[in-house]
Specification:
Blueprint (H helix, E strand, L loop, with lengths): L2 H10 L6 H7 E11 L2 E6 H14 E14 L2 E12 L6 E14 L2 E11 L4 H6 L6
Parallel strand pairs: 1-6
Antiparallel strand pairs: 1-2, 3-4, 4-5, 5-6
Protein name: SnoaL-like protein
Organism: Meridianimaribacter flavus
């Protein structure tokens, strides 16, 4: 499987609800360097696992829609939107945030991530720019 296929398969999995996905896809020495509206943080393997455990408790569902997926050897860049259904309103899915992440793969696992995110802009123009393309 190519690095691009690997990253695509990870984002299309149910990694927020199945902790074994994290074990299967992330390198044990994984680091995610994340710039968000709350500031900069570095997450290690267990921090990422805990983050998705919190997400699974907070949301009824969590879905990633990839708009761009580019690869250069062991580096894969993905641009995507996270859509959620809240526990309070499980019938309505809404965009939560937009992300761009550059992953470096090592030993066929996600090793180093460099991510930037922002709250989803729900304007039609913004959502169209994040619409799924052929990836």
């Amino acid at each position: 499987m190519t690095p691009k296929e690997y990253v695509k398969r990870f984002y299309e999995s149910d990694f927020a609800n199945e902790t074994t996905v994290i074990d299967n896809y992330l390198h044990k020495d994984c680091l995610l360097h994340w710039s968000s509206s709350k500031g900069f943080s570095v997450l290690k393997f267990n921090d990422i696992k805990d983050l998705f455990l919190d997400i699974s408790r907070t949301y009824e569902s969590f879905r990633v829609e990839i708009s761009h997926l580019l690869a250069d050897e062991n580096f894969v860049t993905t641009r995507y939107t996270v859509h959620v259904r809240t526990i309070e309103d499980p019938d309505e899915e809404q965009p939560m945030a937009h992300f761009i992440t550059i992953w470096e793969l090592k030993d066929n696992k996600l090793y180093r991530g460099y991510e930037i995110s922002q709250q989803a802009d729900v304007s039609l123009e913004s959502l169209k720019s994040f619409s799924k393309i052929k990836v």
